[in-house]
Amino acid sequence: MNVKELDPESSPQAAFGARLRRSRAEHGWTQDHLGEQMGYSSTHISSVETGRKLPTLRLARRADVALGTGDAFEREWRELRHGALLEGFPEYVGHEGRAVEIRLYEIGIIPGLLQTPDYARVLADSAVRRGAITPEQAAERVAFLAERQEALERQRPPMVMVVMDESCIRRPIGGREVMDAQLERLVEFAAHPTTVLQVAPFDIGELRPFDLPVNLLTMPDRSVVAYAESQTQGHLDRDTTSVLPMLTTYHQLQAEALSQAASVAMINEVRKGTP
Predict the structure, then answer these.
(1) Separation of alpha carbons 92 and 237, rounded Å
(2) How far apart are CA 114 and CA 170, in angstroms?
(3) Where are the beta strands (DSSP E) in 107-213?
(4) Dihedral (Cα; 121, 98, 63, 138), 10-degree rounding
(5) Can you tell me the distance from the alpha carbon of 118 to that of 168, in angstroms, rounded to the nearest whole number?
(6) What is the CATH number of the domain that holds 226?
(7) What total number of domains does the chain contain?
(8) 137 falls within a domain
(9) Would you say 214 and 229 are in contact if contact means Cβ atoms under 8 Å apart?
(10) pTM of the shown model
């Protein structure tokens, strides 16, 4: 793709590249010179400018420093990354990164914060095959998930409590190798001092209080926010009159679910029988 063929309106990725090229031209710099200032090769700069390569947060921040653009490139990078995400989800992730307690309930798939890269990639690639997202957006989703997971590895990590429906560990995703590594990841997660992992078995039947996934965050000021998704958008709820009853219901779910020890035992049994 040459400069004449680049259409900034074609995608957020192309818009980022066009802005980088325009800012470089305003300084009268070559790609070689900008690359030297940012610590990248001229080939890498060219690939970003023409939309062939996704920009990273590191690149965006270095572009802002080199070109004196404040945080313009970082903000555009965040908008680009969020374009592959469900509406409302980026706002939730911002709260998630500051939460002191995270409570999750999931049905059918392993919660994102516990997914291995290979497991996450299989799910993203499946969405590409269905035509729901582009290959570029699939790559963005997987990379963004990795950043969410890294954000929780801070000096004072949050307490993370996860209840998974039994379907999460029994639904095969990506074949034996991918699924076995994912189940091993769950066992490792359960061993951390700031985590609790429970499986809600099928046989609790009508005692399962939730029919949809649940995300509950306790913030540093002890306020609680909830996040829920439909097929098209996500919604963050801060209204205590609706959120606090969900917290009570979550505690009831934990009471009906298997203990962490029994949950890990079930996961290990499933690992032995992974087809």
Answers:
(1) 10
(2) 15
(3) 159-165, 195-200
(4) 20
(5) 16
(6) 3.30.870.10
(7) 2
(8) no
(9) no
(10) 0.69
Residues 229 and 109 in one domain: yes
Query: CB-hemisphere CA count at 13 Å for 165?
Result: 19
Tokens representing residue 221 in the block = 């000021």
Q: pLDDT by residue (tens digit) across 245-272?
A: 999 999 999 999 999 999 999 999 999 8
Point out the domain boundary residue: 82, 102, 128: 82
Structure tokens at 229: 């998704």
Give the mean model confidence (pLDDT) for residues 235-239.
Answer: 83
The strands making up 159-165's β-sheet, listed across from edge to edge, are: 195-200, 159-165, 101-106, 214-218, 224-229, 234-237
Q: Contacts for 141-145 with beta carbons within 8 Å, 24 or more apart?
A: 141/84, 141/85, 142/117, 143/54, 143/81, 144/81, 144/84, 144/85, 145/112, 145/115, 145/120
The answer to whether 117 and 174 are in contact (CB under 8 A) is: no
Q: 222: left (phi > 0), else alpha (psi -120 to 50), else beta?
A: left
CA angle 250, 142, 91 (to 5 degrees): 50
Q: Can you tell me the distance from the alpha carbon of 221 to that of 98, in angstroms, rounded to the nearest whole number?
A: 11
The continuous run of DSSP H or E covering 101 comes out as strand 101-106
Q: Within this chain, do residues 98 and 17 fall inside the same structural domain, yes or no? A: no
